[in-house]
Amino acid sequence: MANNNNSSFTLPGLNAAIIMDGNGRWAKKNTMNVTSGHEKGVDVVRRIVETAAEAKLGSLSLYAFSTENWSRPKKEILGIKKLIIKAIDSQVPELIKQKVKLDFFGDFEDFGKQVTDAIDQAQKDTDFQHPSLKLNIALGYGGRADIIQATKLMANDINSDKLSVETINDEIFFKYLNAPIRELDLLIRTGGDHRISNFLLYHLAYTEIQFCDTLWPDFTELEFIKCLKKFSKTERRFGKRSN
Ligand code: IPE
Ligand code: IPE
Ligand code: MG
Questions:
Q1: Residue 223: in which H helix or E strand, if any?
Q2: Which of 98, 99, 109, 228 is at 20 to 30 A from 134, Cα to Cα?
């Protein structure tokens, strides 16, 4: 839980995202296997979601597994699969209590029926009309794949006269994308690397990006609040002259 000093800090409606990187290095540093690193990572997710709800964010989008991560060793992927099922089982009751709406996006069919069924059920169980927070989990997600599938869908709709080329704008393009968000205000990447790794490419146009060296399993509520506070002091100009 966020400590009392910070629990009063809020950024109502803010759309934030996190590239949760560093589980593997954390495991190595602590002479554990990589799955233990991911397991510790899930624990951090729970606390950061709680903090995000307390800070009254509108949405929190978490990069859990990328399209490129499918190339990792089978054993690691199996470990992640088991963790997803375990995490949904243990966390959803708490999310329901907190009125957090859970949404998974990306191509995660290859995790198998047990995972897709658990995800379906979790999404149904948390389908609140007025959620306290929207929690979006990117699983098997790639920004490029998202843009390509959106383009294909649009082409099909143009061919069948459901969409006219002239009407395509940002608003419509967002609707065809898989990610259940529009513009992002803040993106945080943990783990020390300064890259996007194929996350929400279309959405990041004017997002404030913060990189921090902390490995994800060591990331704390306090650090998260610090990122939010830093964000709140940033002047966002969107290409215009400042006032
Ligand atoms: C992020 O941690 C989690 C996933 C990509 C699934 P990593 O496993 O990439 O951790 P590092 O970057 O190897 O330390
Ligand atoms: C980004 O981390 C993806 C997730 C955190 C899910 P990676 O570890 O896959 O990214 P790279 O390989 O360092 O770019
Ligand atoms: Mg990594």
A1: helix 221-232
A2: 109
CATH architecture of 12-143+184-232: 3-Layer(aba) Sandwich (3.40)
pLDDT digits (tens, 9 = 90+) for 160-192: 999 999 999 999 999 999 999 998 999 999 999
Q: Is the CB of 141 under 6 A from ligand 2?
A: no
- CA-nearest residue for atom 12, ligand 1, is 22
CB atoms closer than 10 angstroms to residue 98: 17
Question: pLDDT of 14-37, one tens digit each?
Answer: 999 999 999 999 999 999 999 999
- Structural contact between residues 224 and 203, judged by C-beta atoms closer than 8 angstroms: no
DSSP conformation letters of 114-172: HHHHHHHHHHHHT--SS-SEEEEEEEEE-HHHHHHHHHHHHHHHHHTTSS-GGG--HHH
Residue count (the chain): 243
Could you tell me the two tokens for 63?
């990069």
- Cα separation, 177 vs 188, whole angstroms: 21
Residue 64 Cβ < 6 Å to ligand 2: yes
Q: CA-based Rg of the chain, rounded to a whole angstrom?
A: 18
